[in-house]
Amino acid sequence: MYDYKKDIEMIKNPENIREAVYASSPCGLMIAFENDLIVQRLINAGQEVVPLITEELEKTGLELPEITLACFAYILQKLNLTSAAKTLKPLFVRAVEKPGPFFVHFAAHALRQATKLQTKPLGMTYTRTELLESLKPGKPKTMKGRERKKNA
User: What is the pTM of this model?
Assistant: First the structure.
């Protein structure tokens, strides 16, 4: 049986994630995650790694590097949206006060998906308003107001 804890330990140092330290946007960072063998191995492991990542986030939380937090959010969102939202929300609430360049966008994406709020493609940035909106319980958005304006 493979020891995924070693992979999680490796990701705790962002330099171990291929090209991640060179990312200048959440989109660039997502591409780095998609191309990294360790990240993909954890995703391919499936549900088995969810409790390991959850435990690590609960233990070290926002003390982890920004890229590592974003990576864990990315993996959780890919594997189990319900667990991702439950685990990421308390961290997101604190991180959104002084957001870094990556984690809040990956966490917001998972939270918005879980609460059925409108999302952007994973890896895109959310505005400050959208980040704050991610904290609220979600309701599917309608386009009625916009449609009326277009048809008027």
Answer: 0.87
